[in-house]
Automatic annotation (TrEMBL):
CDD domains attached to this UniProt entry: ABC_KpsT_Wzt (cd03220), Wzt_C-like (cd10147)
Family, per entry: Belongs to the ABC transporter superfamily.
Annotated keywords: ATP-binding, Nucleotide-binding, Translocase, Transport
UniProt-listed Pfam families: ABC_tran, Wzt_C
GO cellular component terms attached to this protein's record: membrane
GO molecular function: ABC-type transporter activity; ATP binding; ATP hydrolysis activity
SMART domains: AAA
The protein's name: ABC transporter ATP-binding protein
Coiled-coil region(s): none
Organism: Paenibacillus agri
SUPFAM superfamilies registered for this protein in UniProt: P-loop containing nucleoside triphosphate hydrolases
Length: 407
């Protein structure tokens, strides 16, 4: 399949000056004295993107992620190397970028469409769907300088997603906006992906990359450190951030199951905030002190305030006290359906034989939709338990094994 984006040995360097005057002094110095320091944001990036790929881009702040996206969109030009784009790009790099603060939301829709290469007549056919998606009411005819960051997010997404691009670029914009709007954006991005739109997606929420993208790249110090299947790259990146990141200097349980309890739905008190779609109301554990191979039961009570939440999933994660991730299954990955209609529900998570050895462990519980991309509610360290044994082994987890004496 032909590449829709082809990047060959891209380098992007900047000249950094200690003082603004140094730039002028360097320009006029008769002996060409150098007053700047060279900073290379990207150093030899080569990447081929196929049509229909959804690629997550991972990396610490300052690693070069946003620089790469700006080069692809043409906002920046490379110092060396070549970029070939075969399609129309729609990008959300910085919320409100390209918006004239004195123009109304409606006028900015036409302005952004013009910058993307659409005529006014073509935008006339799209403007109703864009306004409906943005859902900012009467503010659509107000100057955008009075918009909140959430309104910027809605309008920027609405324009970028509803112009049928060949390539959609999203840089951390999902971090702004309420849960309901995030869900709508992810649904629309899925729709575009299914239609063959190529998506480049930057997010510090690596689980979003793992669940939404089929491929990923990890940029470290301006170079591609790893690329390939999104799950594999995310695991490499998270392992690095946990153990090898100088700034911060999968164990599988024997068996897990979910037991859904049939609990009558009492009348709910709906929250005053309409953006709260669901919430975790109670979490209990069968015992706070157990032994290795005992049964652990986590009972989760939650409420659903929508008529139905499509793709609702429940996740339970196990951590050490210093937040090392041990195990975190969820109902979507294990194809377990949990109640998702309006009401109060109770689900029990069971580990029949806990394989962990001595220590204190913490439980996180989360409600998500869209395959875990959008978080509806999350309770960190909601319950904990301690494992105490007579001495019979060492380490963190007991692994089934055997010994064979050869001679």
């Amino acid at each position: 399949m032909e590449s829709i984006i082809e990047i060959n040995d891209i380098v992007k360097s900047y000249k950094l000056y200690d003082k603004p005057m140094d730039r002028f002094k360097e320009a006029i110095h008769p002996l060409k004295k150098v007053y700047h320091k060279e900073f290379t944001a990207l150093n030899g990036i080569t990447l081929s993107v196929k049509k229909g790929d959804a690629i997550g881009i991972l990396g610490k702040n300052g690693s070069g992620k946003s620089t790469l996206l700006k080069l692809i969109t043409g906002v920046l030009t490379p110092s060396n190397g070549q970029i070939r784009i075969n399609g129309k790009i729609s990008a959300i790099l910085e919320l409100g970028a390209g918006f004239n603060p004195e123009y109304t939301g409606r006028e900015n829709i036409y302005l952004n469409g013009l910058m993307m290469g659409f005529s006014r007549e073509q935008m006339e056919d799209k403007i109703d769907s864009i306004i409906e998606f943005a859902d900012i009411g009467v503010f659509i005819d107000q100057a955008v300088k009075v918009y909140s960051s959430g309104m910027f997010a809605r309008l920027a997404f609405a324009v970028s997603i509803n112009v049928e691009p060949d390539i959609l670029i999203v840089d951390e914009a999902l971090a702004v906006g309420d849960t309901r709007f995030q869900t709508k954006c992810i649904d629309k991005m899925k729709e575009l992906k299914n239609k063959g739109t190529t998506i480049l997606f930057v997010s510090h929420a690596s689980e979003q990359v793992k669940r939404f993208c089929n491929k990923a790249i990890w940029i470290k110090d301006g170079k591609i450190e790893a690329e390939g299947d999104s799950s594999e790259v995310v695991d490499l990146y998270e392992d690095y951030m946990k153990y090898y990141n100088v700034e911060k200097d999968e164990i599988i349980s024997e068996s897990t199951e979910l037991d859904q309890l049939d609990t009558p739905n009492e009348e709910l008190l709906l929250p005053s905030n309409p953006d709260i779609l669901s919430s975790i109301t109670k979490v209990n554990i069968n015992s706070n002190k157990v032994k290795t191979f005992d049964q652990i039961e986590i009972e989760v009570e939650y409420e659903v305030y929508e008529k139905v939440i499509v793709d609702l999933l429940l996740g339970v994660a196990l951590y050490t006290p210093d937040r090392e991730y041990i195990f975190g299954p969820n109902t979507h990955l294990e194809k377990v359906e949990v109640p998702n209609a309006r009401g109060r529900h109770v689900v029990k998570y069971i580990i029949p034989r806990i394989p962990l050895l001595g220590g204190t462990f913490q439980i996180d519980v989360g409600l998500f939709n869209n395959e875990g991309i959008v978080c509806l509610d999350y309770k960190q360290d909601i319950v904990s338990f301690k494992i105490v044994n007579k001495y019979f082994s060492e380490g963190l987890v007991y692994i089934n094994h055997k010994w064979e004496v050869i001679k």
